[in-house]
Amino acid sequence: MTGASSGIGLATAKALARRGHPVVLGARRVERCAEAAAAVRADGGEAHALALDLADPASIASFVAGATERVGEADVVVSCAGRDLPDPDLGADDDTVFDTTLAVNLSGAHRLVGLVLPPMVRRRRGDLVFVTSETVRAPRPRNKAYVASKWGLEGYARTLQMELEGTGVRASIVQPGQTLTEMGSDWEPQRAGAILEEWVHFGLARHSHFLNASAVADAIVTVIETAPGTHLTLIEVQPEAPVRRDRTTSEDTT
Q: Out of 63, 130, 146, 156, which one is annotated catalytic?
């Protein structure tokens, strides 16, 4: 489980552990993963915490080796880590945000899959779940690096689906809408406000409700626990809008 120190990754690790899956939590903030793993074990589950920096190939290899040593070859891999920082101003000569975002969100996922997939294919079973974003369907201004990385990840998963057909290994996409996580909490507040206004201008913030991370985790668990012979290739999860009190039904008016 990548990106397991908070948000969707952490919620998914907890949900899988409650269902009896041994879980390995990976993230750069390994101390937070360790706290979560300890809580899972206190509830009777099996959980381990390992450092994982998806921008570092050596860290990815170490994570896979450590996870295999602790729980054996993976039957399920959830690619959930995500870096999202606002783009530099137009014309700024700084590619750091773009390069790092793609390294974590796309290239890191590819390297991880390259290490865990061959044993899955050999055993003729396994699930790869890629958490993308509604920005694939509705791109956002000032978010080019994140949008490009999630578009790329979804295209990568779609291609894997074709290549894995008939192997017993499923590659699935879970595409969440706006979700209440720590992502974006490190944005400079004034700039974040200005960017949000741009999103509203383009109709990209339709309402004020956000998904809880646990709702996305439930969708991921559904994908994983779907019986063999069925492949949920893409699940889009959106927050329900606030109920409009000005709307009435025929029953209300009779």
A: 146
The answer to whether residue 156 is catalytic is no
Is 164 a member of any domain?
Answer: yes
Q: For position 186, which CATH number holds? A: 3.40.50.720
Digits of tens for pLDDT over the chain (254 positions)? 999 999 999 999 999 999 999 999 999 999 999 999 999 999 999 999 999 999 999 999 999 999 999 999 999 999 998 888 887 666 665 688 899 999 999 999 999 999 999 999 999 999 999 999 999 999 988 889 999 999 999 999 999 999 999 999 999 999 998 876 655 556 677 777 776 777 676 677 776 778 899 999 999 999 999 999 999 999 999 998 888 887 655 555 55
DSSP-derived secondary structure for 235-250: EEE-PPPPPPTT---H
The dihedral built from the CA positions of residue 241, 245, 250 and 251, taken in this order, carries a sign that is positive
Taking the CB of residue 13, how many other CB atoms lie within 10 A of it? 29
Domain count of the chain?
1
Interhelix angle 7-18/30-42, nearest 10 degrees: 20
Give 118-121 contacts, CB < 8 A, sequence gap 24+.
Answer: 119/73, 119/74, 120/73, 120/74, 120/75, 120/167, 120/169, 121/164, 121/167, 121/168, 121/169
The amino acid sitting at 109 is A
Q: What is the DSSP string of 33-70?
A: HHHHHHHHHHTT--EEEEE--TT-HHHHHHHHHHHHHH
> Is residue 45 domain-resident?
yes
The whole domain housing 77 covers 7-241
pTM beyond 0.70? yes
